Amino acid sequence: MCVQRFGYKVVKNILFLATESFGGFGGIAQYNRDFLTALSRSDRVENVWVLQRLTRNSSFVLPDKIDLCEKHSIGKIGFFVNAIRLAFKKREVDEIICGHINYLPIAFLIALLKGKKVTLLIYGIDAWEKPSGALWGIAKYAISRVISISDATKRKFIAWSKFSNERVEILPNAVHMEQYSLSKNREELKKKYKLESRRVLLTLGRMSASERYKGFDEVLDIVKTLSTKISNIIYVIAGDGDDRQRLQKRVSDESLSEFVLFTGLVTDEQRLELFQLADLYVMPSYGEGFGFVLLEALACGTPAIGSLLDGTREALRDGLLGDLVDPKNSSQLLDVVVKNLNKPHSIPEGLGYYSFPNFCKRTEDLILG
Questions:
Q1: Do residues 12 and 364 make contact, with C-beta atoms less than 8 angstroms apart?
Q2: Which of 107, 117, 282, 295 can pair with 175 through a Cys bridge, CB separation 3.0 to 4.6 Å?
Q3: pLDDT digit string, tens, across residues 180-231
Q4: Residue 197 CA neighbour count, 13 Å, CB half
């Protein structure tokens, strides 16, 4: 047998199907990297075989026990073929973890071949509505449990899937505190980015025409009025995407250019510096599964504002770590932004709840407990 008992311990071999993890970008890739790293650190895991469809950056180091079985990006058909081939090759698989709901039909076929059940990971809007295609109705029977990044996603998933509450567990993001810090000289950083003497609001994220829920428009709605209250205000929008041109046109059409700066894509170093120099991170979103960027801002000591309507409420621990607003209430957003611009920079003690050691313990308890 592949599962061996040493006293109370169970040593497992895990097959993980993912869109991206190591060598990937964005929140899901980061979550998957942390999830896999947590598994690799457990003495109750022997091997983790990872098949992912996208590998966009080759400069990464894999943790021990992690075998990335495909180191290049592959198409959907290639992913399906390689997944089935891997399932036949790795006969000792004990656990199948499906890292995206769209891959559930593939995980279902592997589960049939291996006589195993599937753990499904869900993150945000990927699981807020029923997937298209007839296979979902069959494939869902392979699921033994679901792990959700937040309660907001859990509730929306249960609403359409009809899964019982007990079958869906919550595993929030981790923040690696050692990768962040308060800036020793924020004014020097502002000078570097030509933002000296400005009060900086920051939102960082992908600008997608199909997913306009990050809160960019909601902040732009208040910028003109905000500038009459805070004369040196500037709203920095960091990131890129196919909706950027529309947002830039809106800024131009509404004569907001002196109050708004688009940075485009930023490096990891620039990302950290932007968090450190910002006076306030603001994200009045309505479709975030969690909102990891809020944790990054807080880990740099920057006050943060989230939303009452999505997973950012949980990231800020229901207001313990930062204020929450209704993104559709412009006057409320304006008042909360003005109030928070005067907050001192400090790293909140409650942020330790999301530490990586805590994440590792939660992961082991859920998968191996």
A1: no
A2: 295
A3: 999 888 889 999 999 999 999 999 999 999 888 999 999 999 999 999 999 8
A4: 2
DSSP assignments along 58-121, one per residue: ----PPTTEEES--S---HHHHHHHHHHHHHH-TT--EEEESSGGGHHHHHHHHHHHT--EEEE
Q: What is the pLDDT of residue 10?
A: 63
> Which domains are present in the chain?
4-171 (3.40.50.2000), 178-352 (3.40.50.2000)
- Who's near 162: CB < 8 A, 6+ residues apart? none
Q: What angle do CA 106, 137, 128 make, to 5 degrees?
A: 85
* DSSP string over 189-213: HHHHTT-TT-EEEEEE----TT---
Task: Say which residues have a Cβ less than 8 Å from residue 354's Cβ, sequence separation at least 6.
Answer: 172, 173, 174, 175, 295
Rounded CA gap, 296 and 278, in Å?
A: 12
* Whole-Å CA distances, 245 to 193, 248, 249, 283, 285: 22, 5, 6, 20, 20
Burial (CB count <10 Å: 0-12, 13-18, 19+), residue 29? buried
The length of the chain is 369
| Residue 209 near residue 296 (C-beta atoms within 8 A) | no
Contact of 93 with 116, CB cutoff 8 Å: yes
pLDDT digits (tens, 9 = 90+) for 313-344: 999 999 999 999 999 999 999 999 999 998 99
Check residue 310 and report its DSSP letter: S
What digits encode the pLDDT tens for the residues 92-134? 899 999 999 999 999 999 999 999 989 999 998 889 998 887 6
Q: What are the structure tokens assigned to 329, written together?
A: 């209430």
Look at residue 161 and tell me whether its pLDDT is greater than 80: yes
DSSP at 42: -
